[in-house]
Amino acid sequence: MSSVKVAFVASGGAARGLAHLGVLKACEELGLVPEIFVGTSSGALVGAMYGQDVPLDVMLDGYRLPWRRRHQGPRLHMSTFLGMPTPEELLDFGHLTSGLFSIRRLEVYLRRHLPINDFRQLPKPVYVTAVDIDSGERAVFGPGSNEAVPVSEAVAASCCVPGLFRPIEVGGRFYVDGEVARTLSADIAVEAGADVVIISNIYRPQRDRGSKRSLAQKGMHRVLRQSLSTLLTEKERRGVEVLAHRYPHVTFIDIAPDLGPYGYLNRFSARPVVLRGYGTALRALASAKADGVFDRVLPRASDVSLPGADDGAADVSGSLATRPGLRIVG
Q1: What pLDDT, on a 0 to 100 scale, did the predictor assign at position 205?
Q2: Which three-class secondary structure state does DSSP give residue 175?
């Protein structure tokens, strides 16, 4: 077992978040065992299940063709997310019109299928982030922070995309998708004691300069997806640099696979998305392991006070940053 404490931090990304499973598969093959899980949106779903020892093969099984399935595990279809209004929402017109669907259906499904629905009973620390819609502040659910909230409710809150879903009420407060405030929350992993933070980030802009047709000529959805990926990647670039300076004893490894044209809602592209995550992660983690990143702990230093920024990780394609505490790979 590694002599350092490893954390796995995963971004959102809807169906593209299946790439997180590929990253975890690479971790397994290299004998790297994350002990801390932090996730937002689809990353929260993955962390909540894998963090309580739901096998990867069981998680992947829901995306196999029906006659190839081997397990009776969860099946996260689109219908699992798109719920009709609850009685409480029907009686509150303002809340009813705050989104198209109710995320409560996902919460009920997770409540029924998660082996453990209590953060305090999970075998490993799992942290889920959301945003309090009234204060605009990040909310953290997990050990030592809102830990009495059921895992199912925290994950549903983290997946509550504004506009698509109505904000979900949890403990008298209303929450939306955690990525509204921060795409990643790697600082939580550091505060939980991580020495190495493996970041699985699916927001890598598509780079296809050799194509004869610009993305601008391929429809509005391609332009919007590229713009969103660029925006979130730049947020992460600034954030990871701040974290690396503030925590020089921690190594951050960003896994940012190129997911090409696969969309956020295309669950039928599960296999290529998982494989791309796996391939990128295997190369990056094998290189880090060969360099002894997982065999040593850098000496701790006093934290450097810097202005706050959205934390996350950048995608510098094909490069390694050599500064202590920062290892960015694409």
Answers
A1: 75
A2: strand
